[in-house]
Design a protein that fits this description.
With 567 residues, this protein is of the alpha/beta class. It has 21 helices and 15 strands. The protein is flat, with a radius of gyration of 30 Å. 39% of the residues are buried. It has helices at residues 3-25, 37-40, 58-66, 70-79, 105-117, 147-165, 181-199, 214-227, 236-261, 272-277, 280-290, 325-339, 354-366, 403-409, 412-419, 432-435, 443-463, 482-492, 494-503, 508-527, 535-558; strands spanning 43-44, 54-56, 87-93, 97-102, 131-135, 169-176, 268-271, 294-297, 300-303, 314-317, 344-350, 374-379, 382-386, 389-391, 428-431. The protein starts with a helix and ends in a 9-residue tail after the last helix. A hairpin with a 3-residue loop joins strand 3 and strand 4. The strands form four sheets. It has a five-stranded parallel sheet with strand order 7-6-5-11-12, with helices on both faces. Strands 1-2-4-3 form a four-stranded antiparallel sheet. A three-stranded antiparallel sheet has the order 8-9-10.
C-alpha cells in the first residue's frame, strides 16, 4: 500500500476531470491538439509547509499549448474541482501554482496499513515479479577484500533488499574470477613461495608482478604441511595447478566466511572458468564476428568499438590465442541476460571501470541483446578517517585495512549502515571515531535507540495494564499536534521512498529515511506525553509509537541491522 501514491492519484484524477470540465464549459481555451493531461501532471510535496501538502504546476505547463495565462488556467481548474473528503482546501499561488491542503484522514489510515502489514509495510508491487540479478563485490579470489569491496557489499545487498521490497524477483550473485591472467599470476606467486619455503629464498626469484601478501606465503606453508615436497620435482604446470587448486578454494571459503559475517549471502557463486569450459566464451566471440564486430590485427582478435560510436577498440583474443577477461565478461553477460533469462542485470563496479560500461553495453547490442537490460552502478572510493586523518593501515597487521580488519574495530551494524549512507556515486568518508560512539551523534545508535525507546514505552505501559489497541478501537482524530502529524506523514512516505530508491537504484534513501523517522519520533516524544489522563489520547499515542516501532524494525531488518529492544 502506497498511501502517497494513492492520494496523488486521487488529486490527479480530480485535476484532470476539472480540466476537461473547464474546457467543456469554456472556462479555459480548447487545445488545438489532444493533450494527455494525466501524463503532464506532476504533483510534488512542497518544501514549505505553508504551500500545502501537495502542489502542481500544470497551469504553467499548459500556458503555451492553450495560449492562455497560467493564472487563468489555474482558476479554471480550481473552479471546476469536485469536492473530496481528502481535500480540505485548494489555493492558487504566484503565477499559477495550485496548492492542495488535505484533511488528516489520509494520515490516520497509515496506522491501519501498518497494523495489517506489520514489518512488511512499505512493500509495493512495482516490479511485478520481474527477474533481476544484482552482481556485486566479485572480489578477486587471489586475496582478501578491501574497503571498496566492503562498500560494494553493503550497497549491493541493500539494493537487492530494496528491489525485493519493490516487488522484483531478485538474485544476488558473486562472480568468481577463477580464470585468466590473475590466476596465472596467483599460480606463479604460490609456486615461488612453495619453492622458497622448501629450498630457500634464493632457490627461485619471486615474480616482480606477483602477489606479495603474507597470505600467499601462508598458503604455501599450509600446502607443504599437507603435501610436503611432493610437487618440488614435478613440472611447473602441474605444481601451479595443484597450488592454485588448493589455495583458490581456501580463498573462496574465506570470502564466503567474511561476507557471511557481514550478513551477505549469495544465491549464486558463478565461476568464470565455467564459461571457458563450456565454450561460451568462444561462442560469444563467434557471434560478434558473425555480426561484423571483430577484426584481426597483429595476430589478435579485436572488438571493433568504433562501429558502436566509441573511440577505443578492445582485444578479445590475445596473440597467444587466449581470450581476454573482457571476452569472458561479454560471455558472462550473455549468460545472465539470454541463457538464464534475467530481465535486468545490475552490476556494481568501482568508478575506475567507467570506461568499460559503454563497451559492455555496446557488446550486448552487437550480439542482439537489448543494452538497456544491463545497468552498471559505479561506486566511488572510501576513505577511513580517525582523528580527522586518513587511515590506510591496520594497527594490528601494519597492512592495508581489509573488511575482516574493519569488522574487528566496528560492529557489523555500523559498517552496513555507514557504507549505505551515501549514493554509490559519492565519495564516502568513514569516520572510525564516530562509528564506535554510543550516542545520538552516531546515526546507527540514534535509529536503534528510537526503536529501543519505543519498546521500553510499550513494556512499561503494559506492566500498568495498558496495551496497544487495534486500529478499530483507536480515536485517531485526537492526534492533532504538529509533531504527531509530522510523524504520521513520515510513516506514510515509506512505500514512496521504496519506489524512488528502487527506480534510482539508491538504497541510501532508505538509510536516510530511517534517520528521518527516528528524528520525527524523538521530536514527538519530546513534545507529547504518551501516557496522560485522557485514556483515548494515551491509546492513540501508544498506537502511533507501536506503529513507528514496527516500521523501524522492518527497515532495519531490510538493511540487515539489529533492532535492539534495550540499549
Amino acid at each position: 500500500m502506497n498511501i502517497i501514491e494513492n492520494i496523488k492519484n486521487t488529486i490527479g484524477e480530480a485535476v484532470v476531470s476539472a480540466l476537461n470540465l473547464a474546457i467543456e464549459k469554456g472556462d479555459i481555451p480548447t487545445p488545438e491538439e489532444n493533450i494527455d493531461f494525466k501524463a503532464l501532471l506532476k504533483l510534488e510535496i512542497p518544501k514549505d509547509k505553508q504551500h500545502g501538502d501537495f502542489a502542481c504546476n500544470i497551469a504553467m505547463m499548459l500556458a503555451k499549448p492553450l495560449k492562455s495565462a497560467p493564472r487563468k488556467i489555474a482558476e479554471g481548474i480550481v473552479a471546476n474541482l469536485s469536492k473530496s473528503d481528502d481535500i480540505l482546501k485548494v489555493e492558487i499561488a504566484g503565477a499559477g501554482f495550485i496548492n492542495f491542503y488535505l484533511t488528516n484522514n489520509y494520515l490516520y489510515s497509515v496506522l491501519s496499513a501498518i497494523e495489517k502489514m506489520g514489518t512488511d509495510y512499505g512493500k509495493i508491487d512495482m516490479g511485478k515479479g520481474k527477474k533481476v540479478m544484482i552482481e556485486f563485490v566479485s572480489a578477486n579470489p587471489t586475496g582478501p577484500m578491501h574497503m571498496g569491496n566492503a562498500r560494494g557489499g553493503a550497497l549491493g545487498d541493500c539494493m537487492a533488499s530494496v528491489m525485493e521490497y519493490a516487488g522484483y524477483d531478485v538474485t544476488r550473485e558473486f562472480y568468481i574470477n577463477d580464470a585468466g591472467n590473475q590466476i596465472e599470476k596467483f599460480g606463479k606467486s604460490l609456486e615461488a613461495r612453495y619453492i622458497q619455503e622448501l629450498s630457500g629464498e634464493d632457490a627461485i626469484e619471486f615474480p616482480e608482478d606477483g602477489y606479495h601478501g603474507e597470505d600467499i606465503r601462508d598458503h604455501a606453508k599450509e600446502f607443504i604441511k599437507l603435501n610436503g615436497d611432493k610437487y618440488l620435482n614435478t613440472s611447473s604446470e602441474e605444481r601451479k595447478a595443484a597450488l592454485v587448486g588448493y589455495a583458490l578454494e581456501k580463498n573462496i571459503d574465506y570470502l564466503k566466511t567474511d561476507l557471511g559475517k557481514y550478513r551477505i549471502f549469495y544465491d549464486v557463486w558463478f565461476r568464470e572458468s565455467t564459461l571457458h569450459d563450456s565454450g561460451a566464451v568462444k561462442d560469444a566471440i563467434k557471434r560478434l564476428t558473425d555480426n561484423g564486430y571483430t577484426y584481426e590485427e597483429d595476430g589478435a582478435i579485436w572488438l571493433d568499438c568504433t562501429k558502436m560510436g566509441l573511440e577505443k577498440n578492445e582485444v578479445l583474443v590475445r596473440q597467444n590465442g587466449i581470450p581476454t577477461y573482457f571476452a569472458a565478461d561479454i560471455a558472462y553477460h550473455i549468460n545472465k541476460l539470454e541463457t538464464r533469462g534475467f530481465d535486468l542485470a545490475i552490476d556494481i563496479w568501482g568508478a575506475d571501470h567507467h570506461g568499460h560500461v559503454a563497451r559492455m553495453k555496446g557488446a550486448m547490442a552487437a550480439v542482439g541483446i537489448n543494452p538497456d537490460s544491463l545497468e552498471v552502478v559505479l561506486m566511488q572510493l572510501v576513505r577511513l578517517t580517525r582523528d580527522g586523518e586518513v587511515v590506510r593501515m591496520s594497527k594490528r597487521t601494519g597492512k592495508a585495512i581489509t573488511l575482516s580488519d574493519l569488522l574487528e574495530d566496528v560492529s557489523i551494524d555500523v559498517a552496513r549502515f555507514f557504507f549505505n549512507m551515501r549514493m554509490a556515486g559519492s565519495h564516502l568518508d568513514f569516520d572510525l571515531d564516530l562509528a564506535v560512539k554510543e550516542s545520538s551523534e552516531n546515526p546507527v545508535y540514534y535509529v536503534q535507540y528510537a526503536h529501543a525507546r519505543i519498546c521500553s514505552i510499550i513494556n512499561a505501559l503494559s506492566e500498568e495494564g495498558i496495551k496497544v489497541e487495534d486500529f478499530a478501537n483507536i480515536n485517531t482524530a485526537l492526534l492533532t499536534e504538529e509533531s504527531e502529524l509530522e510523524l504520521l506523514k513520515k510513516l506514510c512516505e515509506l512505500p514512496e521512498e521504496i519506489r524512488l530508491a528502487a527506480i534510482g537504484r539508491e538504497p541510501a534513501r532508505i538509510t536516510r529515511y530511517s534517520i528521518e523517522l527516528a528524528t520525527a519520533f524523538h521530536s514527538f516524544y519530546n513534545a507529547c506525553r504518551v501516557k496522560g489522563e485522557d485514556k483515548e489520547l494515551t491509546a492513540a499515542r501508544l498506537k502511533l509509537c507501536a506503529s513507528v516501532g514496527t516500521v523501524l524494525r522492518g527497515i532495519l531488518k531490510m538493511l540487515k541491522i539489529d533492532a535492539p529492544e534495550k540499549m
